[in-house]
Structures are given as structure tokens and as C-alpha cells.
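Notes to self after the Tuesday call (sharing in case useful).
The group wants a holo model before anyone commits to mutagenesis around the pocket. I volunteered. Ligand is manganese (II) ion. Logging inputs and output together so the record is complete.
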Amino acid sequence: MNGFKPIISDDGQTQQPLIIAGPCSAESQEQVLQTASILKEAGISIFRAGIWKPRTKPGGWEGIGSEGLLWLRMVKSNYGMKVATEVACRQHVIEAISSGVDIIWVGARTCANPFAMQEIADTLEMLAVDIPVLIKNPVNPDIELWIGGIERIYNAGIRRICAVHRGFSVYGKQIYRNQPQWHLPIELHRRFPDLPIIHDPSHVGGKREFISTLSQQALDMGFDGLMIETHPDPDKALSDKNQQITPDRLVEILAELQCRTKEHSDELLSQLRHQIDDCDHELMEVLSKRMSICRQIGRYKKDNGISIVQNKRYDELLSSRLTHAQELGLSDDFIKRVLESVHSESVRQQSDIFKNEKN
Ligand code: PEP
Ligand code: MN
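Result:
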């Protein structure tokens, strides 16, 4: 997949970073319009609000439904903002598009379901619309499933696609509601460098106090934008109340964020990367030298009837290396994992000598 296009390109320019804000759910006409008016004043051009809400359990607030589409139209006509809502099936796509929704997004639970993704893709193809589609990562940390969802939408002819990183769920209590697992969006970017990716700190953090730090982290990593849930009275929100912030707080957070321009950091970055290249080069050479010495020891052990694994020697080695590592400020856990991996490869090399080299 390639040839992705920016999801909005007014005057040929894409707003950098791209900011999408608005409530988790559209709850009332007043709440929608009040939020939109402050966001508009703050320079936000894309308004989000869910009207069909996928809830974990029945009985929760499942969204206002189609009635909310009317409020989104008012946001468009009163404030000239682009409006975005979540779709999960054919009917949602048809209704959203016929009501003039500008951008649709596919949620994490839907992205995890290839049947639903295909249904959405087929509907878009049938309607022959060229609408921007945001695709959240699936709830489980499966990058192929995320790419598969993106590919289905891409195959329907949509090129204004944007991936949304909203974290991955794990069992048990964690600091964040959904684990960021930053390496997954980074890997997605490595495979599809021209696919825009934005971060959703609201669903990752699950709590208001994490929004600012997560947003900055995402911008530092080069994400193209943020989607942030905003509610005029978060404590009274009908869904995701702990993670929503007021539009005024959003304005404060945005003002504090440091947007690192790519040009600015390029020179220093490339110098540092060269240093990393050198370190890795040395690391490879040292590892290769170490393995060659291990093979010599293997030959010696074999010739002298000594067994490969000598626990006492390994324990001593581990403890002396850990002391050294501590002096160098390296974490015990990390060094243990490195040494275990190096040791198990050394054992494998020596076993090969025992098996293959004749006396
Ligand atoms: C949402 O954006 O309100 C939402 C339901 O998100 P997710 O699919 O990431 O849980
Ligand atoms: Mn939400």
C-alpha cells in the first residue's frame, strides 16, 4: 500500500499536528454545540463525537443514535468545522455519509473484526465515496490485524486513511487503561512511511492527568496528530468520564505542547544515529569475537571430557557482570536478559562443536 493522502488538505496544507477534539459521545444538542464553539475558537478544525457507542457490556450508554447526526450538521453549519463520527457497520456508513459527516472512524473493537471491516469497505465502495477514514488499532496488539483492516479500506479505493493509535488492552489493573506498546505504531510507520498516524491519549491513558504527557510523548516520536476527548462537564459525561477534559483544559495542554519540527531535529538526529550505528557495529564485532572464543573453549571441553554447562562458572560470570553493569548505570533486568541470551547462544555453539567436530 502506498499513495496515502492527508485526511484534510485545506489550501493544499495539512494542519500540523492534526488535532481532532470533541466528546466521547454526543449527548445533547447543547453539549455538542457548546463544546464545538469553544473548540472552534481555539482553532480546532475537526470535531469528533460518537453517536453509536460500542459498550463492553449491555445496559451502558449506547449513544444517541441517528438523532445525533443532526447536531453534527449544526456544528458544520454554525462553526464551519469538519465533523467525524464512529461507524461500525453498513447502516452507520450509509447514514453518516448521507448526513454530510466529513470523516468517519472505525473503533478498536470493529478493527479487530475482519467481517465488520470488510462490510464497511464494501459499503464505501458501493457508495463510491471518497471520504477520509480513521482506523483505530484493534484492541489486541496484533499489527497484522490493524494492517489488514487498513488494507480492506484501501482496497475500496480510499486513500485519505489515517491510523489512530489508542493503545492495547491487557488483563488486570495497569497504570494506563490501554497499553501504548509504542513499538507497534512505530513498526506500522516503518512499513508504511506515508500513512499518517495520530495518537489518542484519552483511550490510552484512561485518565485526565495522563493526556498531556502522552500527547507530548507522541509528538516527540513524530506522530502526525492527536485525537483528544473533550467534554464541557467531564464528571457528568455519559461515557469515558475519567478521561475527558474540558475544552479550556485542552487549549492549555495544546499551548504547552512542543511541536518538534522535523527540519530542526534532523541534523542532531542524524549525528546521534551515526553514533548508534558505530556502537552496534562494535557490538557485532565483540559478539562475533566472543562466540569464536566460545567455540575454542568447546573444543577444549570436548577434548578433555568436560561437560558444556558449568553452573558455578555461569553464576560467577553473571554476578560479576551485574556488578559491572550497575557501575555503568545499566538495569539489572536488562543485563540479565542480555547475558542469558548470549549464554544460551554460547551453549548452542559449543553443542554444535560436540556434535559435529570429530576428534
Ligand atoms: C471512542 O473513540 O470513543 C472509542 C470508542 O474509541 P475506541 O474504539 O478506541 O475504544
Ligand atoms: Mn471514548
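Two things stood out.
The pocket of phosphoenolpyruvate (ligand 1) is lined by residues 24, 50, 54, 107-108, 136, 166, 203 (CB under 6 Å).
The chain has two domains: 18-259, 268-358.
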